[in-house]
Write a structure and sequence with these properties.
This protein has 12 helices and 23 strands. The protein is an alpha+beta fold. The chain folds into 2 domains: 303 residues, BirA Bifunctional Protein, domain 2; 88 residues, Anticodon-binding domain (Rossmann fold). β1 and β2 form a beta hairpin. The chain starts with 20 loop residues before the first helix and ends with a helix.
Length: 411
Amino acid sequence: MRVSQLFTKTLKNAPADEVAKNAQLLIRAGYVYKEMAGAYAYLPLGLRVLENIKQIIREEMDAINSNELIMTSLQRKEVWEKTTRWNDDVVDVWFKTKLKDDTEVGLGWSHEEPIVEMMQNYIHSYRDLPASVYQFQTKMRNELRAKSGIMRGREFVMKDMYSFHATKEDLDDYYAKATEAYKRVYDRLGIGDDTYVTFASGGAFTQFSHEFQTICDAGEDVIYLHREKNIAINEEVIDEAVAELGIDRNDLEPVKTAEVGNIFNFGTQKTDEMGLYYTDMEGKRQSLYLGSYGIGATRVMGVIAEKLSDEKGLVWPKAIAPYHVYLVSIGNVAAQATELYESLQAAGVTVLFDDRDERPGAKFADAELIGLPYRVTISERLLADDKLELTVRNSGETQLLTRDELLAKIA
């Protein structure tokens, strides 16, 4: 992609009403556009990052034999009434509306109930189990607070997965596999070292669920870490978890975090409420066990923007960067720069080519703000020595390299 072909432009300043660092940087760099508090449009660069995040998640969910689908955002009142969660006193983030025939519907904030309802058409006997499905879906939540940029949205993209099992043991086994898959996701996203599987409230279904919490100054949660034992506990369940785990509270360190995922064992309560059962080998009706597993794809993008950035701009990990190289052309080298651009792409390197008639300082500043892993500079002076300049964004290290040496570094 040539920068001259992008309709977006970088900005020196973010909107005055945007207080979150992640959104300030993403808006200034041309990744997102703010419609209103908690609602953002994802522009070409931002969409590429989001799709890269989704692809990493998709690969790890596929690896544990889940099936991808996509559900509708429109949800029937009757489905949610079966579990009492249509009631605003039970779930207080609903966006509700009416169809032309006056039928009341909701805009999906989650999909447990609709997916359990749907699976009644596909799960009948033990032969149909286990089953696992997931989707990337735009969720709508009427949040009271939406001041954390894309880390807390009223509209956001979420990966939600649901698994169905004949026995508690089978669910426990899959739950463990999902936990490991989530760890791989966060490792690949570049935040694995700071992300902890965290004991959290299980609500009405079980004593504890598990959250994936990433250390982040802009986060809204506090967790307590036992670094030696690699145990993390959400502040809201600290007393119960300490007693359950038999650890000394004095050994726990409080840290600020952002939740980037959660997994939840529903047992059989939700499927019983919804009337989803299966027939066992002896022809008897049995209850089903349900697991629920969520990752906020746009939320984790915001967390990465918060954590992996500096005073100059964003610093994307290579795995999710919209392009790998920001190519800067300086002086009268248009033909040579175009040839380099095409040869890098032919070698499998994704390139954002700054072909604008702009001063070098403006191009370098935009390269740092946009935050691609590498900046490659081509100029008359460099070409005279048969060299190209490579700058690594996360370290600032700069080298003068031949074309072959450059390709060996970045391809």
